[in-house]
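From the methods appendix. Each design record in this collection lists the tokenized structure first, followed by the designed amino acid sequence. Records were kept in a plain field format so they could be parsed without special tools. The example shown here is representative of the layout used throughout.

RECORD:
FOLD TOKENS (198 positions):
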């Protein structure tokens, strides 16, 4: 990990906090990272393309909205920069569904920052893999539903067992060089169309 995008909305440039040593940019640069800073979505999205991770220096209530905006373009590891300025809300402001890959603070030493960024990258990759697997499982469940409905229709219409209906579906899919779910979907839709007409 080399290039970081810092979203810094907590401190305005004219405030006393702007010169605070708690700001993420200067500390991360001193650790050897290339740091780009943005304060709004329009500034952040072009910079995100080259960033290896996004560091959000925001109140906890704004994390998920920013996360959603960033994930529309790219799925980088997302970390929260926790300081007295970004964590000044009560614990009740923390939504249960806040998803970040790690938390950084200005009290951390460079080796700690490096390790947190390393673990955040791994966490992000694992979550993305789980998300892909979940989507694949949901797609398989949906395909299974169509196949089961088609088996039921064929079984009833041809007065055959469901295993025979499954074999019939499989043979028809092979003959038409289509996926079984596509043949099943066609059968169910035609059946529903005929039911609607009668």
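DESIGN:
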């Amino acid at each position: 990990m080399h290039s970081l995008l810092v979203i810094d909305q907590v401190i305005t440039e004219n405030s006393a906090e702007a010169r605070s040593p708690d700001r993420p940019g200067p500390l991360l640069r001193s650790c050897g990272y290339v740091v780009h800073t943005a304060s709004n979505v329009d500034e952040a999205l072009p910079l995100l393309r080259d960033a290896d991770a996004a560091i959000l220096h925001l109140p906890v209530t704004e994390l998920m909205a920013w996360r959603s905006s960033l994930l529309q373009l790219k799925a980088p590891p997302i970390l929260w920069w926790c300081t007295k300025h970004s964590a000044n809300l009560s614990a009740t402001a923390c939504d249960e569904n806040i998803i970040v890959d790690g938390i950084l603070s200005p009290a951390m030493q460079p080796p700690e920052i490096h390790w947190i960024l390393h673990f955040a990258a791994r966490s992000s990759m694992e979550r993305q893999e789980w998300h892909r697997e979940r989507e694949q499982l949901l797609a398989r469940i949906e395909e299974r539903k169509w196949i089961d409905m088609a088996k039921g229709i064929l079984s009833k219409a041809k007065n055959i067992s469901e295993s025979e209906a499954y074999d019939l579906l499989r043979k028809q899919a092979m003959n038409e060089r289509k996926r079984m779910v596509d043949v099943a979907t066609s059968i169910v839709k035609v059946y529903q169309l005929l039911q609607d007409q009668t």
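APPENDIX NOTE: The beta strands are 3-8, 34-38, 53-57, 78-81, 102-104.
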